[in-house]
Specification:
alpha+beta; 3-stranded antiparallel sheet; two-stranded antiparallel ribbon; disordered C terminus
Length: 220
Amino acid sequence: MRVPDYYPQFTCIADRCVNSCCRAGWEIDLDDDTYARYMTVEGELGERLKKYIDNVEEDGEIFHVCHMQEGSCPFVNKRGLCDIVLALGEDALSVVCTEYPRYYVDCGPVTEVSLSLSCEEAARILYEKETPMTFMEIDDTPNVAGKVFDEEDEKYLMIPMDQFQEIRNNTISLLQDRSRHVTERLKNAFSYTEQVQEILNEAEDRLEEVSTGELSYVNL
């Protein structure tokens, strides 16, 4: 799993968070295993879990949803802490609550993980960072369901994986070129990716060129 170098610094700051995701009014979906566990909880907490968690049918599928109360998760107490965690431990949280603000992108055989800037602590870590970002490999298994990339999958890519990685690395290099103003860096990155996309849009006519690794890049 590939992560930015600041990734290990992140941990949820819970009640110290000013703009808590628990009070953002976002819909919270529960995975099947968490829902099944919650429905076995007894006592006052068990009653609250059954009261605020409901099943919603959409397009023939059943989803487990925790209903917000005035824009807040009903299990966040006045101290800003989670009653579920306090009673059952962190491993009792749903996948959504456990994984946020992490989000995953499959880059061929490698899963890349980043932190969403909608989380104030993730944003603080990133914006206080003074050195260019680098990536690191860690031995970890995401707590989300995903498809394992294999050789059969690669034939469906518009370009070979090594070229995909090159495009990605070139884009990051343009954004990290601190000899230029951030506005110029953004313009260069947008211009570069636009030109690459134009080439990919012509894939039907240039499919052999793309698939054989002869795709040329525009260096700004």
